[in-house]
Structure prediction request, 453 residues.
Amino acid sequence: MKYISTRGGSEPLSFSAAVAEGLAPDGGLYIPAEFPNIQDKLEYWQNLSYAELCFEFMKLFATDIDEESLKDIAYTSYSKFDDTAIAPLKKLDNGLYILELFHGPTLAFKDFALQFLGNLYEHLLAKSGKTINVLGATSGDTGSAAINGLLGKKGVRIFILYPNGRVSPLQERQMACTEADNVFPIAIDGTFDDAQAIVKEIFGDVSFKNEWNLSAVNSINLARILAQCVYYIYAWLSLEKSERDNVQFIVPTGNFGNILAGWFASKMGLKVANFKVATNQNDILYRLFKSGVYEVSSVKPSVAPSMDIQVSSNFERFIYFMEGENPERVCEIMGEFKCSGKWVFDNFSAEDFSASRMDDSEIATKIEEIYKKYGEVIDPHTACGFADISHKGTKIILSTASPAKFPELIEKVIAVHPTAESLEKLLSKPIVNEKMPANTQKIRDYISANGIK
Ligand SMILES: *Cc1c(COP(=O)(O)O)cnc(C)c1O
Prediction:
């Protein structure tokens, strides 16, 4: 299987090479050159464990990785989850389910992809004898999930910049209490934008980037999307056969990585009637799916912070398919969008999709309503998924984070204090981080002093 760029200007690569590359050299994103058909495999996949299913699925894509290694990667990646089902499907009502994607080590759905990616990196580095230094900026969830995915991995050091005092105390602990000696959390005296600007500047310094083999933790890596396809198939197979004909997946959405994975699975033959893009008040995608106009506005910080995005980095993959797999057209749209912050799709028709949005006060009300109605405590991201559950058929809402990550809001709304054992454990551990000014040269020096070669 080969992987091609959405912008058509890069050589097709093998799976391993595309994973190592991340972003394609022409600025595009890698996608499979073709989608395998999984329809006739579903019967056999029915009885597999999550890790087995992951192995069987990824085997279709990671064709240049030997099967023994791939199996190891799949099994190791889901060994740190605290529920034996890994992605349990929980029934709330007739035809209404939530898919709990928060049983991984950092209690958010990003663990599904980043645990897999961490193990994959370790395997690829061992094979090539190379080392990498991963550098990223985070406002919370991605940083902790990336750190956990790379925890203790050989040949890898990870440097994560975050704004000092502006990530939640629990998120800071998830990054700074790992006790791993290859993890370097850096609390910047500045904002998330300052942290991101420093990371960008360092990546722009090509000789430094090459000297340290710097790599990004971003949500655009091909392996992340593919690893996320697995829980859509797993959830679908967890349904009774009679419930599989008219399924809607409802997905709390930010960077469009999660929902894109589901749509890819449907392109491979998983029978799904509809995908609902559920946004918070940062609703660029909601507006697009309602009107065909894709237009940036400024980010308004919300109570569902992991969905506070301006531009969805994965959306380019969707545009590629929407526009008839035409890379020139993708270049045109992305170019114009970068310039003016706007693109109007004419006759935009995405029948497979629908959309909803929720502002902060609606999220709080919804958390209360769901608790009263079903006795279920949901986190603010998951709450966005309940905006519109009118689909006549089976609805599966993806629950992307554990409520225990957002105790303040939940306590305020329903007077329940959600907890999780793994978070409680962190409270007794010392915070180990480096406090630094928002100064690019100082960060570069720090990497030089602590990086791996
Ligand atoms: C990252 C994240 C999302 C958004 O997922 P995308 O793939 O960026 O659309 C939603 N909820 C939580 C809890 C997240 O961490």
Q: What stands out?
A: The pocket of pyridoxal-5'-phosphate is lined by residues 108, 110, 141, 219, 252-258, 306-307, 381, 400-401 (CB under 6 Å).
